[in-house]
Amino acid sequence: xxxxxxxxxxxxxxxxxxxxxLRREMGMTQAVMAEDxxxxxxxxxxxxxxxxxxxxxMLLKLAQVYDLDVASLAGNRGEEFAARFDGVMRDPLFxxxxxxxxxxxxxxQSYPAMAEAVIRLYTAYRxxxxxxxxxxxxxxxxxxxxxxxxxxxxxxRNSFPSIDDHGERIxxxxxxxxxxxxxxxxxxxxxxxxxxxxxxxxxxxxAVRRLDRHRxxxxxxxxxxxxSRTFQLAxxxxxxxxxxxxxxxxxxxxxxxxxxxxxxxxxxxNYAAGSLMMPYRAFVxxxxxxxxxVEALSRQFGASFEQICHRLTTLQKxxxxxxxxxxxxxxxxxxxxxxLDGAGFPFARHGGSCPLxxxxxxxxxxxxxxxxxxxxxxxxKFFTIVRTVTAGGGAWGxxxxxxxxxxxxxxxxxHRLVYTQGTDLKSVKPTPIGVACRLCHRIDCAARAEPPxxxxxxxxxxxxxxxxxxxxxx
Length: 474
Known about the structure:
Layout: H1 2-25, H2 30-37, H3 41-48, H4 56-66, H5 70-74, H6 78-89, H7 101-110, H8 112-135, H9 145-155, H10 161-177, H11 183-192, E1 195-199, H12 201-204, E2 209-212, E3 217-221, H13 226-241, H14 243-250, H15 258-277, H16 280-289, H17 294-301, H18 305-312, E4 326-331, E5 336-341, E6 370-375, E7 381-392, E8 400-410, E9 431-432
Parallel strand pairs: 1-3, 6-9
Antiparallel strand pairs: 2-3, 4-5, 4-8, 6-7, 7-8
């Protein structure tokens, strides 16, 4: 009985910070929330400080007033938060502090804001270490616009609720007003007095979409497939009607160069186009119902395999979260052309990834979905699916590019995916991989391309190891 009371108390300890976070995410003061819920501002303040309990009636009222899922609001995220903090505290950086598990648990439960501050500082520290590893000894490298744009997206877990809300509103208006497969085209005609036309590639002169204000036309390459054509229409709507929302999101970036901001703007416009094609609430419900079956979702929403993968990385809207995913796209040479992180996967900032990851074997089995469990050197485990996708083509002789994409999630969410159904998750043996060779200290890896930073390489005058490099203990 005493243990049950302790667990109840622990859950209550996390409700205050969660309520405060919810209020801030919705951009409300305590007074505004109090008015919405029919209580006093002081009562809201007391609940946020855990000095008043979060009753069942109050939970239901929160869910009704703000259209939230009761299960996600009342669910015990304290364990997940505590696990994150515990993972930080187990870093070798803190090994000499002799922190007991009880100390760590006390801080995460009694002082969640302080624990969150430590997690943020640790994350910033890790980012700095990764950047040093990426740049090596060249500390005078010029700013990297691609890396800066990727950091902007990654820091927000590729989730922009304001864009999702705006896109959902526009998609709702279009769905209510116009029926049929060409509702985006009807929207352009009525709202912008623009006619949509399709022209041959030689007339398009290398463009797939062009807005011609003089002729009041939006012109598309006629060789685009249906999913690509719909995406280009949605993208133009984003640039025309969602510009202010995108600008507000960009305002938080603090970019150091014009190129960085333009790349981030382009990424957010693509995000907005996805929110129009796959409105957030409908997409989350469909994804859960279909157990994140990418091909089934592709058919339901008329989107490509890659577009669905993109959208799955964005499902972290507070109160309406889906499973968190990360996404990466590479070509046959291993060059990374796209990377989206909504799951906390520690991508290397530059260069390729681990050759043991099935992402690099996908080209031998075109269009076939390959599944794999992987484990990083720190013990983190992820489940991934990979498949090749094709860009371009559409006509004889038209250039096309084959790439491989990977979609993955943390092992604790893998049971929600159709790809793991029927698998004994406890008996799975993951493939040991690294973030990148320079950051991986697995000394017996035969696939290693270069030694890790901080390790001395042994001479092979008298002995050669099976692995490409031998390392001293120093």
